[in-house]
Every structure is written in structure tokens, then in C-alpha cells.
Amino acid sequence: MEKYINAFISAFKGASQWTWNSMLFDVPWYTNYFWGLIAISLVVWFLEMAFPWRKNQAIFRKDFWLDGFYMFFNFFLFAIAISGFYKLLQLGFSDMGINAKSLAFIDMANWPNWLQLLIFFVILDFVQWFTHKMLHRFSFLWQFHKIHHSVKEMGFAAHLRYHWMENILYKPLKTFGVMILGGFEPEQAYIVHFLAIAIGHVNHANIKITWGPLKYILNNPVMHLYHHSYELPEGKYGVNFGISLSLWDYLFGSNYIPEDSGTIPLGFPGDETVPKHFLGQLIHGFGLRKNK
């Protein structure tokens, strides 16, 4: 028991110290997600101001500051809070003889770096696409995902506005994806992580980008806006589930872009029941609700 307690405390302290060191620029620049997130956010926000798609949308749009807080809460504060619990899970599996290589399906250790990064990016994106689809498919998961879909005006910071339970769901599945890849991340995995943050910010931003022919591979703001549409095609529980890649939606038939004016209403039927403040949203999803 002492081993588990010490591991829990050590993981919590380590995550806290790493974040603090990041704020002080006392970590390698390519692993500094604190200032990296700020830099990417400022660049995309500037693009929103310089090239707005919805020109009547304010620079400080509806819920701008709430979404800004969510970025730091989900990316850092909550990650620190649960770091100890994930360490306990790791130890528990280790004691049962299950390690990071137990489920290895692809051993990339001797592959070229660029190929490692590509495979890592594609597999993790598919895992996230599938998880995202499940968040819409199952009612008890949708109750939590409603927080993300309660956004009424899209902007870069809406990317990381989501219920903390999604961290609980996504992280183990992303870890599972890493285990499939031989139990390790490529040495330059930070490139994939920063790229995913940038693409996610752009996809939620008030800018109009479609990438031309690459739209069948890369997700984009036009496609993702329809993911947040108030009205969905009849019989659909969601469309355009892509995170970084649109490829999965085109392959599995969940793509939908009827027009590109950017003027559609956002949200979902019954979104008025979602609390408007952070503390209310923090506990949303745990009660029984009739609306889906």
C-alpha cells in the first residue's frame, strides 16, 4: 500500500512541478506545452481578427473568457489532478504482469523517424475519432459531451471547452493507441502533439479554410462547424467527427457539408438546460435528463 501512496504523491508533485517549470521556461522548448498553447492561441486569434469568416462576430465572442479558462483547466489543472490516479493504474497493471508492450501490434522502434511520427499521428487520430463518435452515440456519454456542444459562437478557444470526464475517457484510449505502437512515443512526438493543438484551434476558429483537395484528408473549420450545427440530418446523431483528419468521416460516411456560409445556428435541441457558468458545467451530466 505504501508503494501506491508514494507513487500517487510523486506523480502529482511531478506533474505540478513540470507545469511550474514550463511557466518559468525551465523545460526544453519543444516540450513546453504551457507557452506553446499560448503561442498557438495568439496566432489563431490573430487570424480570426485579420480574416474573420463571420464578420459580425465580436473579437471577444460569447463565452470567450469561459472557453479561455477551459483551455488551461483541461490542459493543465485537471491533468495535474488526475496524474496520480493514472500512475496507480500503471502500477496496478504492472503488478498483474501487463506492461506497455503487452498489446504491441506494431513495433516502430527501428523505423525512420518520419514514418514513426506519421503512423503515431494517424493511429492516435483514429482512436480519438472513434471515441468522439461514441460520445455522440451513447446517451450517458453525450450528457458530458454536451458541454462542448453548448458553444453558441465558434472561436479557437472552444477547442478545449469540454467536460472533465472526457479527459477520463480519452486519455486511457490514447494510451491504448500508444501500446499498440510498441508501447512508446516517437522521439519527436511533440511535433504531433503541437500539430494536433494547432489543427484543433484552427478547426474551431472564426476563419474559413477548406484546404482545397486536401479537405478529404484534413479536417477544417467549415467541416467542423457543421459538427456543431443545431440541426442535424434526419436520423443522424452527429456528423463530421474528425479531430485532425477528415479522412475517417469520408471513409465511413459521416461527412456532411451542405453549404459554407458559416451562418448556421450552433448547439443542440435542449441546450438551454446546460449551465452557463463553469461550476455548473463541472457537475453537469451526472443527473438523469430526458433530453438527448
How would you sum up this structure, described in words?
With 292 residues, the chain is mainly α. The protein is 54% helix and 0% strand. Helix 2 packs parallel to helix 7 and helix 4 packs across helix 6. The termini are far apart.
Write a compact overview of the structure shown.
With 292 residues, the protein is mostly helical. It is built from ten helices and no strands.
- The 3D shape can be described as globular
Number of distinct beta strands: 0
| Contiguous runs where pLDDT drops below 50 for at least 5 residues | none
* Rg, Cα atoms, Å: 19 Å
Overall SS class: mainly alpha
Topology order in helix (H) and strand (E) letters:
HHHHHHHHHH
Question: Main sheet?
Answer: none
Give the distance, in angstroms, between the N- and C-terminal Cα atoms.
42 Å
Mean model confidence by pLDDT: 89
**Total number of helical segments?**
10
**Helix fraction?**
40-55%
Strand content: under 5%
What is this structure's SSE topology?
Blueprint: H1 2-23, H2 33-50, H3 64-95, H4 113-137, H5 139-149, H6 164-180, H7 189-204, H8 221-227, H9 247-252, H10 278-282
Essential attributes:
10 helices, 0% strand, mainly alpha
